[in-house]
Amino acid sequence: MSFCVAIDGPAAAGKGTISRAVAAQFGLAHLDTGLLYRAVGMKGGDPVMAARNLTPEDLARPDLRSMAAGEAASRVAVIPEVRAALVAFQREFAQRDGGAVLDGRDIGTVICPDAEIKLFVTASAEVRAERRFAEIGEGTFAEVLEQVRARDARDMGRADAPLRPAEDAVILDTSDLSIEDAVARACAVIATRRG
Ligand code: CDP
User: Fold this and answer.
1) Residue 102 main-chain phi, psi, to 5 deg
2) How close is the Cα of 75 to the center of ligand 1, in Å?
3) Which residue's CA is minimally distant from atom 18 of ligand 1?
4) Largest Cα–Cα distance in the chain?
5) Second label for 9, Cα 20 to 30 Å away, from 74, 127, 138, 171?
6) pTM of full prediction above 0.90
7) For 100-148, what is each residue's pLDDT tens digit?
8) What's 4-194's CATH class?
9) Ligand 1 binding residues, C-beta < 6 A
10) CA 18 from chain center: how many Å?
11) Bridge partners (DSSP) listed for residue 104
12) Could you tell me where the beta strands, DSSP code E, fall in the chain?
């Protein structure tokens, strides 16, 4: 039986850590959908063709977590044909036996509107930039903050699948939470809903 947990939110809000922990705790498969967009952005050439022809090697590139990849991802993510090319793979993953956690921007709104559980993980731009700066050790804090804000604006402002909480999403603001507390709250929501 499929069981889908959709985790959306802006850059560096803690989605990745929470998703991995939730997947481990409840024995679910995990897909970081941002990696798909990062791989398309870094492949070069026509982004629509890149999205249609993504390979496992593209998804294993060591530079996918870089600032450049995040920037490239949010630029190709505004293209409707790129998004359309990635839908089927994500939906198949979401329906796998044993259940799945998918994290991204449009999982609860577009990819899995019927997900059993939807979480929208957020935090202030400053807190997110601090976390991302500590994590990637690239650029200056001011540059990271600027990139976080630019990506927020692009992700929320695009016409196709903009970043926003689904109406039935539980909002988890992690600005003042340790990662352990954020994970514990997410797990509590899932345990309650799962019954
Ligand atoms: O890790 P971080 O939250 O910084 O970013 P990510 O989840 O790897 O996503 C990188 C970019 O891909 C985002 O800024 C979005 O523009 C895009 N993306 C998207 O449009 N839809 C998704 N489901 C996942 C990512």
Assistant:
1) -120, 135
2) 10
3) 34
4) 47
5) 138
6) yes
7) 999 999 999 999 999 999 999 999 999 999 999 998 888 899 999 999 9
8) alpha beta
9) 11-12, 15-16, 33-34, 37-38, 70, 73-74, 77, 104-106, 151, 155
10) 11
11) 8
12) 4-8, 29-32, 100-104, 117-122, 170-173
